[in-house]
Amino acid sequence: MNVDDYFASLERSLIQNPLVGRLEETFICLASDDHNGLVRGRVFFWDDSFLDLYEVVSTELGYPIRVSYAYSYLREGRRIFRYDNAPHHPEIITYPHHKHIGPQDRLAPADQPSLSQVMAEVAAWLEQ
Predict the structure, then answer these.
(1) CB 86 within 8 Å of CB 72
(2) Three-state DSSP state, 94
(3) pLDDT for res 25
(4) Which of 74, 92, 108, 121 is the most exposed, having the fewest neighbouring CB atoms within 10 Å of its CB?
């Protein structure tokens, strides 16, 4: 798998997801070579809440590895949650992976989520 295949698969899965209203016009997939690149964009849901996503990906081993990532879900202008692996919270047991919860930005340990896990968490919020 090359990075363009990964990007196409990611975009296709988002477009086909029934929760997704639309992707922001500036949804960007940039490959630096056949196996490395980044994707950044905003995914809007039916209630106008949105998910900002950012991934730096390598497919050099034949499958995608997210070198760095951030997924932020916002609703009514307030952050509900954010997963990322920025190395700035070494006190967290799952370092560098962690989760920011709510507008108070409470930190919690978290394993690296898949995009489908993040979308399932968004779905739970959309059902409330």
Answers:
(1) no
(2) coil
(3) 80
(4) 108
Torsion of CA 47, 83, 113, 40, to 10 degrees: 70
Give the model confidence (pLDDT) of 48-68 as tens digits. Answer: 999 999 999 999 999 999 999
Tell me if residue 35 falls in helix, strand or coil.
Answer: coil
CA gap 75, 82 in Å, rounded: 12
pTM of the model: 0.93
**Of 82, 74, 88, whose CA–CA distance to 113 is shortest?**
82
What are the angstrom distances between the C-alpha of 97 and each of 85, 86, 89? Answer: 4, 7, 9
Q: How many other CB atoms are there within 10 angstroms of residue 89's CB atom? A: 16
pLDDT in tens, 4-33: 999 999 999 999 999 999 888 878 999 999
d(CA 91, CA 25): 38
Q: How confident is the model at residue 39 (pLDDT cuts 50, 70, 90)?
A: very high
